[in-house]
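[agent] plan:
  1. take the single chain provided in the ticket
  2. run structure prediction with default settings
  3. attach structure tokens to the ticket
  4. add a short note for the reviewer (M.T.)
[agent] executing step 1
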Amino acid sequence: MKLIFAIVNSDDAGVVTRSLTRSGFSSTRLATTGGFLMAKNVTIMIGVDQEKVSEVLDIIKEHCHSRTQIISTATGISRDFPAGMPVEVNVGGATIFVVDVEQFQRV
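[agent] step 2 finished; step 3 output follows
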């Protein structure tokens, strides 16, 4: 068994979890905050058998989109730009971890 952690943009989370549910996958959704932009994210946890991992990853990839966002460097994220200068950064998409589950029980 595998446990998939998918950290996705909060704008994409609803469609991802609905699509997972329609495809028969149960998931747990946690509200999280990213460390770089301090933006709202959602971490979705999905437990699946090894042979279903690629199907879950395909669903996540289909619905998580990268986008650009203008931010002010006044946030202190970069020393390469003068303070207050707006810069464009890529946000969104998904960061996915697939880990082995040693034991699984429902109680």
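[agent] step 4 note for reviewer: The longest strand covers residues 40-48.
[agent] ticket updated
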